[in-house]
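Entry:
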Amino acid sequence: MPSTLTGLIIFVLLLVPGFVFQRRRARDRPAAEETALQEALTILFTGLLLDGIGLAAVGGLWWAIPGSGVDVSKLVLSPTAYLAAHPVRLMGWSAAVLALAIAVGYLAAGRRVQAVVRRSARRAASSEPHASAWWLLFEEHPPEVPVHVGCYLSDGGYLSGRLHSYSRVGKESGDRELTLRDEITYREPGEASATRVLHNVGAVSVSARNIQFLTVTYLAPPEKAVGPPPEEDS
């Protein structure tokens, strides 16, 4: 561990990219029950890896901009003297490395990138050890595929709509919720007629404790807007 205040600040800054990566990744994945040591090691090694990527990328700019780079040999042999002689240069490049490492970590932990990683590794969402049942259903396909959810409620009613959000908590619990949006349809308990659309309702929240079972339908991805074909010259 660092023995000075400056060393402690530098050490904490080196871990920031790993912390950002873990927090961003946790937004879209089931939460695993980890010990404090496991979480700290994950942040440590991920942060150092991202810092290395940022340093390698920024190091390439030193060759593209002659005279503005950092002399690594002088920095290692006499860090105090080199810092006193080039404080602005060192702080500027350090900030660039840190910003790049944070950006790479945030993007790498995104839902789309993680989906690409799973597909490239031929690893489906069902192989996630801490995933809840509905996370497996909702994440089995790419993020751009819309998901329509039908909820058969425990009181005999029925509620359906397009999936908007859902709890990422890995532990199966009745406290979890999911939200539906777009055209919300509902059938009251005891009714045998078809469902009806709830007008002037843009979204609805459903608690897991009120769901008997649910159905999931993967819809076709929305088509990208295509402009009119070019006019042919007469």
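Helices lie at 5-26, 36-64, 72-77, 79-85, 87-108, 111-120, 133-139.
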